[in-house]
Design a protein that fits this description.
By secondary structure, this protein is of the alpha/beta class. The protein has 17 helices and 11 strands. A 6-stranded parallel β-sheet has the order 3-2-1-4-5-6, sandwiched between helices. Strands 7-8-9 form a 3-stranded antiparallel β-sheet, with helices on one face. Strand 10 and strand 11 form a beta hairpin. Helix 1 packs across helix 7. The structure holds coenzyme A.
Length: 423
């Protein structure tokens, strides 16, 4: 049985941050009802690769959901939402600041309508503080949560990371909060409001950088490959440094293309075996015991020498050949995998992390699979819904409306007119 079977979620989220969360909950078996404006989640039409078809941006974030269109700027649409709130366990949204209040569905009102219901919101910066009124997208959160200032090299610009830590990362945080609040609601009969700010989520994911920020008050950071000193104030960008207690970096391999790199962690426990294997081939047979490299303290001080030697060794091998050599020595390492590498990887396919789906508008396509594997409730991934595909089904099944009522609501524009900006 699916883990969240019987949990019904009113999913008012859009774009990426919220839909990531509701898709995961749907994969765990929740009945996720995606409430969309009559024009649809904006991502349906963004970055389209197939004319007139839902974009991959949308399809990859909205699987296993049902879609209902509701025009929340009509009294009839508001009434439908009110009744859906009564029938659901969770309501989630990631509108801009104040949007839901303007529509008449503040947390206080929602709690009044259904006291058991848990409500979750994602905002760029939360509901309090000087930034509360600002909208946010992924890279705004990366910029303001500490990720960008610590990504890149010291004499280059700050960089964003390809992993969507601001959007998808925040969605994961929300999922944890919702499930905790749901558990509590089951015990107490009372829902609560769960708020996750994207900036807070990014800070949480940059925790080790705030560790280093405080360490700088006491002295330099010996594991950093770039200069640091006591009282430096802010944590510098440090390229591909490991960020942990073990030294790590990416080395360039044959044939030296854009992704011909292997990330290697020179774990203390494997130093001797690694140095014995590398040393003879790079003209330093006593590399393991060389006083400049023999201890972790010395290796930190002489990182440049160590990485020069490892890079010299790597030059003769492809990333896969080098990985094989190092795996035999139990050295933690990983090839830099391109999207093409991953889409064709046997391990990835075997773990159902690159899943083929069919779609009435776009035909065959792939989604990244469910990363959380529940032994008794494996995810079954189904395609994303078309806009409003389940409007009538939900009105009949969930709200018990008959044909006459549905038709009257349709006439009144409850599901169809384009939303207008509030006056
Ligand atoms: C992502 C974001 C910047 C997009 O901004 P936006 O496109 O201006 O959208 P907003 O959420 O601010 O506003 C949506 C509008 O659609 C309207 N709307 C939404 N659903 C509706 C429906 N079913 N029926 C009628 N109107 C609807 C809202 O009432 C609002 O209109 P208003 O401005 O007149 O109040 C903003 O939603 C945001 O900051 N969200 C929180 C942070 C976040 O999640 N960001 C990451 C996204 S991946």
């Amino acid at each position: 049985m699916e883990a969240l079977k019987g949990v019904r979620i009113l999913d008012m989220t859009h774009v990426q941050a919220g839909p990531t969360c509701s898709q995961l909950l749907a994969w765990m078996g929740a009945d996720v009802i995606k409430v969309e404006p009559p024009t649809g989640d904006i991502t349906r039409g963004q970055l389209r690769d197939v004319p007139n078809a839902d974009s991959l941006y949308f399809t990859m974030l909205n699987c296993n959901k049902r879609s209902i269109t509701v025009n929340l700027k009509t009294p009839e649409g508001k009434q439908v939402l009110t009744e859906l709130i009564r029938k659901c366990d969770i309501l989630m949204e990631n509108f801009g600041p104040g949007v839901l209040d303007r529509l008449g569905f503040s947390w206080e009102r929602v709690h009044e309508i259904n006291p058991r219901l848990v409500m979750g919101s994602i905002k760029g910066f939360g509901s309090t503080g000087p930034y509360a009124d600002f909208k946010a997208y992924e890279n705004v959160a990366q910029a303001m949560g500490g990720a960008m200032s610590t990504t890149g090299v010291p004499d280059g610009p700050p960089y964003v990371t390809g992993a969507q830590i601001g959007d998808s990362g925040t969605g994961l945080h929300l999922a944890i909060g919702l499930l905790a609040a749901l558990r509590q609601a089951e015990r107490t009969g009372l829902g609560q409001y769960v708020e996750v700010a994207m900036m807070d989520g990014v800070m949480n994911l940059c925790r080790v950088k705030f560790r280093d920020h405080q360490r700088l008050e006491r002295g330099p950071l010996p594991e950093y490959s770039v200069p640091t000193y006591k009282g430096m104030g802010e944590v510098p960008r440090a390229g591909n440094d490991s960020g942990g207690g073990q030294l790590g970096n990416a080395v360039h391999c044959k044939p030296h293309g854009a992704n011909d790199w292997l990330y290697i962690v020179v774990q203390e426990a494997v130093w001797e075996a690694l140095a014995r294997r590398i040393g003879p081939e790079v003209g330093m047979p006593d590399m393991a015991t060389d006083p400049r490299l023999a201890t972790i303290g010395e290796r930190r001080k002489n990182q440049q020498l160590m990485w020069t030697l490892i890079n010299k060794f790597a030059e003769k091998y492809t990333k896969r050949e080098l990985m094989k050599i190092l795996n035999e020595l139990d050295v933690p390492c990983g090839p830099i995998m391109s999207t093409a590498d991953l889409a064709n990887d046997e391990h990835v396919r075997g773990r159902q992390m690159w899943v083929e789906l069919d779609h009435p508008q776009r035909g065959k396509w792939f989604n990244v699979g469910m990363p959380i594997k529940l032994s008794a409730s494996p995810a079954v991934i189904r395609r994303s819904p078309l806009l409003g595909e389940h409007t009538e089904e939900i009105l009949r099944e969930v709200l018990g409306y008959d044909e006459a009522r549905i038709s009257a609501l349709k006439q009144a524009g409850a599901f169809s007119s384009a939303p207008k900006k509030a006056a």
